Every structure is written in C-alpha cells, then in structure tokens.
Amino acid sequence: MKKVLFFTHNLSHGGAEKIVRFVHEYINSHDCGWESWLCIVYSDPDIESDVKNLIIMKHHSRKTDNKFSKGINVLKQIKEMRAIKKSLGIDVCVSFLSGADIINVLSGTGEKQIVSVRNEESRFVNNILQKEYRLISYRNCDRISAVSARAKVDLTSFFGIDPHKIIEIPNPVSRPQINQVDDRAFTDFVKDRFVIMNVARLFEAKSQLQLIKAFQKLLDELKQDSIYSKADAGSSSIAKSPVLVIVGDGPLRKDLENYIAINKLEDKVLLAGEKRNVASYLAAADLFVLSSRAEGMPNALLEAMACGLPCISTDCGAREILAPDTDPMYLTDSIEKGKYGILIPTCSNDPNDKNYLIMSKAIEMMLNDEEMRSRYSKLSKEALERYDKDHIGEEWIKLLNETGGNR
Q1: Which of 101, 182, 298, 369 could lock 137 by a disulfide, CB 3.0 to 4.6 Å apart?
Q2: What is the CATH number of the domain that holds 110?
Q3: Same domain, 149 and 276
C-alpha cells in the first residue's frame, strides 16, 4: 500500500484546513490503495484527538520570534519533515498553503510532491520576492491542485506555470448536520424575524463592515414602506422584520461592535461569535450574504446552499458556484442574476466606494421577491452536484494515482 502525507500549519481555522482533514479521512476510510498521514505544525487539543495518523511537528515559530529566528526555524522544519518522510516511507506529500509548500518541496526524499493552491495567489504578491517565494514551490513540485478555474488561470497567466501541470479540484460540501441551537441569545434574536446571515471570520478582507452599512441602508429604505412599519406583527417572510446575523470571530470584532453601538443597531445586528455547528445556525436563516473581497472557493457559501438558502455573493470567487456557465474571470459591476444565486461587485475599504449600496439593493430585491428566493433555494441541490464529497474524494485519489509515487 502506498503512503501519502498531507501537510499544513494547523486544523483550527480556514477552508484549507477543513479540506486537508476531509481528504485525509476520506482516503483512510476507503479501500483505494493509499494510507494517509497528516502532519501539522501547531497543536490543537480540541481537534487532534479525533484525527488518526496525526503527526505534530516539534519545531514551530512564535509570534515574538524575529525574522532571523523564523528563518532558522524553517530550516529545522525542513530537516524534521525530511526525517518524517523517510521514517514513514512516504510516496506522495501534499502541502496546503505557501509556507507548508516551501517545506514540502525542500524536504524531498524521492517522493512525489503536490502543492495545493487555495486562492488567486497573485492577490497576495506585492513584490518580486513574494512572487519568487511562491515560484520555488510551483516550479519544483510534480503537480499542482488548484481549487478553482480562477486559481488555475492565475497560476498560468501570472506565475507562468504550464497548465498541464495543474489539475482543478474544488472543495467538497457535505450533507449538513442540523441540530437544535442551544444559544438563547441567538434564538431570541431571530424569533419571528427575517434572518439575513453571513458566516466568515471578522477580518478586513471579509468586508463585514460594508455588509452592515448595506443592511443599515436597507433599513432606512424600509422605514418608508408601511409594510415594514408593522413588521414584527406579520407572519409571511416579506412582513417579518429583517435582522442581520454574522457568525464568526476575529480581530475586527471590537470595531464592528463600536459601529453597531454608535449607530444604535443592537436590536438589528447580532455578532453571534464563532460556532462549530454552523449548519444549525444557517438552518435558522432566510437569506445568506457573502461579502468577501476574495475567496479561493467560498466554503461558507457552499454550506449555506447545502442548507437550502437563497444566496447573494460578491464576485469574490463565487462565480463558478452561482453562475457556472459564465466566464470565470469576469467581474460584475452591477446586480447579476446568476443561475444559482445573485452576484454583486466586491466592496473595498475606500470611503468613496459605493458598492455597498449595490449590495443593499440586491438584498432588498431578494427580500421582496419570494418567488426568486424559493427558486434559488430549490436550485441549490442541482448546483452542489459538482461538489459532492464522494466525487471530490475520488478526484483526489485519481490525482494521487496519476502522480504515481513510484520511487
């Protein structure tokens, strides 16, 4: 039996970490000729006890380390990774995220190496050194797995990688496990209300401040509508009072809390915090809005659609999901009704950027059109066929087999 080693920094945050664990567990639960091992840099006791064949590296950097110390630590990690590969007899090593990619390609012991690219990496390149840093991995690995068509085009056009070296494998979506939410603050807040939900880390690139501004503008517009003046007394979705719930936590929480307080939105906007059972919260929503500026493959959007929610998303990497028959590189500058959901322009932090007004109009349009919400909700199942977990798992096994791993 051949052995594959998956390598990333941790299992606690982000879509890449979820996919690493998914593929690792999928391979070990199927008779496919491969045994999977998973190596991470940083320990997480809440998660690691449930993961089989897990290795935690001895060497890792700390926030207080200077650049010299971090550089020395990378050299130690390369040496440690080489020893891990040798001791296990690894045939293929697959790394996720650029720091892990470097360690993967520089610690070779004769195994094949696959780099998984989770985003349009050119967006994070500000100088030639950052570009060359990534190119070390892209040029020296055997294959590259790109999470989307946009990521693949970015690899070929910006980094000059041969397209034949790249295979596109999107993220999977699983059947949601919906349980009763044991969160009194949340359940009381959403009761008998039209719930607009966003799920993302509270981080600048997720643009939740612009989403709150869009929602605030929506409330101002609805005040002029007599239907909503008696909103809480109604029973249909159009007659319910709209509220915004943001599930997630992060460094911008205090700034968002201050904005909500200053604008007296406490009874209309809830920062629910980070939740492990996200699907159970999504099941209580009526509409999902993704406000991000850039996503490789937006897992939160896929999860919302799996829960049957009609969705609005910025054109941040969601086009392949919501409008798969269009050019994946096209970016809308207005409200676009895609096959499976609505696309809108991304919002920047520029105070002169008025795209949040387009977001507000899109939410209002969906709010007022029950037929549209129902149609998008029913189409979600069709949209997610491509992202079926078994299909994606088999795609990964196919990639491992094609890469070979023959020493």
Answers
A1: 101
A2: 3.40.50.2000
A3: no
User: What whole-number distance in Å separates Cα of residue 217 and Cα of residue 121?
Assistant: 34
- Is 29 in the same domain as 150? yes
Residues 199 and 304: beta-carbon distance below 8 Å: yes
- 305-356 pLDDT, tens digit per residue, is 999 999 999 999 999 999 999 999 999 999 999 999 999 999 988 878 899 9
Place of tokens 């990774």: 81
Confidence check: pLDDT of 232 > 50: no
Residue 179 in any domain: the answer is: no
Alpha helix (H) residue ranges in 144-273: 149-157, 184-190, 208-222, 226-229, 253-262
Domains held by the chain: number: 2
Give the pTM.
0.85
**CA separation for the pair 156, 148 (Å, rounded):** 13
Phi, psi of 388 (to 5 degrees): -55, 135
In a domain, 8, yes or no: yes
Q: What is the pLDDT of residues 178-209, one digit of tens each?
A: 888 889 999 999 999 999 999 999 999 999 99
Beta bridge partners of 287: 196
CA 125, chain centre distance (Å): 20
Q: In this structure, are residues 101 and 115 in contact, taking their beta carbons and an 8 Å threshold? A: yes
263 and 237 inside one domain: yes
DSSP conformational letter for 388: B
Q: Tokens in use for 299?
A: 């897992």
Check: CB of residue 5 under 8 Å from CB of residue 88: yes
Same domain for 343 and 358?
yes
